[in-house]
Amino acid sequence: MRPSHERRVLLVALLGGLPAVLVAMAFLWTDDHDAKLRWTLTLLIVGVWWFSALALRTRVAFPLQTVSNLLAALREGDFSIRARGARHGDALGEVLAEVNTLGQTLREQRLGALEATALLWRVMAEIDVAVFAFDENARLRLVNRGGERLLGQSAERLLGRDAAALELEECLRGEAPRMLERTFPGGRGRWEIRRTGFRQGGRPHHLLVLSDLSRVLREEERQTWQRLVRVLSHEINNSLAPIQSLAGSLAGLLDDPARPTDRDADLRQGLSVIADRSQALSRFMASYARLARLPPPTLQPVDVGAWIHRVARLEGRLEVKVEAGPETIVQADGDQLDQLLINLISNAVDAALQTGGGVSVGWRKRAGHLEVWVRDDGHGVSDLENLFVPFFTTKPSGSGIGLVLSRQIAEGHGGTLALRNRRDRPGCEALLRLPIQQAARTSTS
């Protein structure tokens, strides 16, 4: 067996001092000295030789044992131990200084990891989604409060059980993200499944996140109904209030047997107002029905240049300038796109007529999308947030559905519609974006 490091150091020390001892012994025993003196000096020389070798071995081995103890403490997670004698300008002192620095660094990293873990657990406990972590054998290794509520059990009873026993095996298979309608012990609803993989301890794990969409959808539905009821109540009351007032006045005139002949004109005028308000209410309900019953688009090839030039010529109040772009064919519903662009150009012309400015329309290709813009030289829009709220309008005679209908058409084609004030000058810009690749794939199929 190979000797230990301490024994090798001792052997080297003994071998290093052996020549000097042999020379001393030679001079000592060859000269004519007293026997007692010879043995005394011999024992002294040999004793010093062995003591020096042992001291050297201790001097070399003790610092190594100290460093070994420090590293063992660091391995066990004890970062509070420090070595004495750490100083610069000394080989051993620099080694001890580096070990102390390593311990301080590991201590700070451990504190940071503990704080990050505590924050992660706090976030997982507070978020309103169910989070599960499964190992390679589909056994549950981590669950947050949302997961406990969803499965109706505490973490102590859930950890270690497999996905099949928890009725989550279906969630670990198939595509993700996706929608799933399921009943769990914690409730029934529509859930969004998100899944990803990670490694812990070198082994693969699966992170499963279940989000309850039913509550969000119910809240959105409630707010939608509230907005609808407010709008309908406002419009219907605006029409019924004058109708009720006029009906009472006209009834009073009819009950008067001695009414003068000029009251017939008042009756006709009152009936005319009632008819006008009834027609306005009918138009309002028809507009809302039109907004709610927008059919899905029928895709056909549409030449973008011909489409924009054709719609621009329909505007007779003001000449619309067309800035031509690249030749582009998209798959879209031509009638719906006509209605969309007519609404945008009409709004732009209304704004430009107030300032005596102009209107321009053009198109370009960017990042796989067709972008159609309509710009006007009007005053701009002060309330951009409510432009796409149904029945919100800034015009005295506006219906408040033109922009909403236009955005529905854009989204029905997989695109977007946005309005913003121009940065270079007063006015507004409407930007329509339609995907080109998607349209091409639809055409090929």
Describe this structure in words.
- By secondary structure, the chain is of the alpha+beta class.
- It has helices at 5-30, 35-75, 91-126, 145-151, 155-158, 213-255, 263-292, 304-314, 334-355, 402-412, 436-444, and strands at 130-134, 140-143, 178-184, 187-200, 203-212, 300-303, 320-323, 329-332, 359-366, 369-376, 416-421, 428-435.
- Strand 1 (130-134) and strand 2 (140-143) form a beta hairpin.
- Helix 6 runs antiparallel to helix 7 (263-292) and helix 9 (334-355) packs antiparallel against helix 10 (402-412).
- The longest helix is centred in the middle third of the chain and has 43 residues, at 213-255.
- Residues 438-445 have low confidence and may be disordered.
Key traits:
single chain; alpha+beta; 5-stranded mixed sheet; disordered C terminus; 5-stranded antiparallel sheet; 11 helices; elongated
Helix content: 40-55%
H and E string: HHHEEHHEEEHHEHEEHEEHEEH
In what range is the share of β-strand residues?
Answer: 15-25%
What's the average pLDDT?
Answer: 79
* DSSP, total strands: 12
User: Main sheet?
Assistant: 5 strands, antiparallel
Structural class category:
alpha+beta
Give the N-to-C terminal Cα separation. Answer: 77 Å
Task: Give the spatial strand order of the biggest sheet.
Answer: 2-1-5-4-3
Radius of gyration: 44 Å
Q: Which parts are unreliable, with pLDDT below 50 for 5 consecutive residues or more?
A: 438-445
Number of helices: 11
Cα shape: elongated
